[in-house]
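can u do me a favor
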């Protein structure tokens, strides 16, 4: 089986390539490298001892995508922009890249009669919790343009399935991906100031940042700081493999990929210090606009439909993050 992986050079995509190659799949990575390095793919080859076919291209270019995708049996679609703050400042870029890009990809798939797709959605589609944990029937309403693009793409996929019930579609709603491959060869390498907590903590540990800003300690949570469901990127990668394997029959299904456990910012900082023996100086600052106090997944459906559950704990997430960061102090150079 040959799988077309859009955004396969990126953080989650590169780890999923490892999982697929190890399971015997062939992969074709299609990425415009707007937020990634070709080095990640060389390292995927080093980890697996297998080769990755790489095509530098943009999902918004339907003609090129239609040609590149020829001969593939299915698609895992990671390509897109993902920074919430940036999406508020540049909504058109986000709608163009994520929504228009996905439309072009789906048309390229249709032209080649490829009807199997696993799509990267996000827990952000649930918005402010009406109840917790989030299960898949929680109402969907997001609060920023990035989340809106994910929701619109989900709706496009549901409509597509209604129009042609031979499609095999899996929508995966990730919670908070962190960690790295255990080799430390691949990991998360944000450009500029990290938006997310774990990469920021890792850059403080390596000395690239002086201290962490903890965004608010007055939330209604066990220690006042924000609570999230962190999920190891290799667990996410195995979730994609399970999702592909579950697409043996036509469907359009949305599934949470989370651990079901909520940890606060301070829980994560303390776990990181314990796992790495590195000090993490921090200061408490005002809340970040748009942040939610607490959310975590109900991962039951993933267990029931995919036979998947998170295997790696917070300690391992911190150790593997540090392993990548300490081996690659400046990321992929
Ligand atoms: P990433 O930025 O590391 O990877 C995305 C990849 O897509 C990059 O390699 C980038 O170069 C490529 N890309 C972007 N636009 C493209 C285009 N128009 N054509 C071709 N390639 C393009 O991000 P990631 O963290 O690996 O996320 C992968 C997917 O998962 C994204 O769709 C993201 O929205 C989703 N997601 C991520 C998180 C997270 O916190 N990391 C959480 C939930 C969902
Ligand atoms: C986690 C917690 C912050 C940074 C975002 C997107 C979401 C998804 C994952 C793609 C919160 C706190 C953070 C810092 C801090 N992405 N924090 N200091 O906001 O849950 O989710 O990334 O789909 O859509 O919104 O993740 O890692 O930014 O924050 O105190 O420097 O850490 O307030 O409580 P978030 P995050």
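np, heres the sequence
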């Amino acid at each position: 089986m040959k799988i077309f992986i859009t955004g396969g050079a990126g953080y989650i995509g590169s780890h999923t390539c490892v999982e697929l190659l190890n399971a015997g799949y062939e992969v074709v990575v299609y990425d415009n490298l707007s937020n990634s390095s070709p080095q990640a793919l060389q390292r995927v080859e080093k980890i697996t001892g297998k080769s990755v076919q790489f095509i530098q291209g943009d999902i918004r270019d339907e003609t090129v995508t239609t040609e590149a995708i020829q001969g593939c049996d299915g698609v895992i679609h990671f390509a897109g922009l993902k920074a919430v703050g940036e999406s508020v400042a540049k909504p058109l870029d986000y709608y163009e890249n994520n929504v228009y890009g996905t439309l072009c990809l789906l048309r390229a798939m249709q032209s080649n009669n490829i009807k199997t797709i696993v799509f990267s959605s996000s827990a952000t589609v649930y918005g402010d919790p009406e109840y917790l944990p989030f299960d898949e029937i929680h109402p969907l309403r997001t609060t920023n343009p990035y989340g809106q693009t994910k929701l619109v793409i989900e709706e496009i996929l549901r409509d597509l399935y209604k129009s042609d019930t031979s499609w095999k579609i899996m929508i995966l709603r990730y919670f908070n991906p962190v960690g790295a491959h255990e080799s430390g060869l691949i990991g998360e390498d944000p450009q500029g100031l990290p938006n997310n907590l774990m990469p920021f903590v890792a850059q403080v540990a390596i000395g690239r940042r002086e201290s962490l800003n903890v965004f608010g300690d007055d939330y209604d949570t066990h220690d006042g700081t924000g609570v999230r469901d962190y999920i190891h990127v290799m667990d996410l990668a195995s979730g994609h493999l399970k999702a592909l394997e579950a697409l043996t029959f036509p469907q359009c299904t949305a599934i949470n990929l989370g651990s079901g456990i909520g940890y606060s910012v301070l829980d994560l900082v303390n776990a990181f210090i314990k796992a790495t023996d590195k000090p993490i100086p921090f200061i408490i600052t005002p809340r970040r606009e748009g942040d939610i106090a607490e959310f975590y997944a109900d991962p039951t459906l993933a267990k029931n439909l995919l036979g998947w559950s998170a295997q790696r704990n917070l300690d391992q997430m911190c150790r593997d993050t540090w392993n990548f960061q300490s081996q690659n102090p400046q990321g992929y150079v």
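The two ends are 33 Å apart (CA to CA). hope that helps!!
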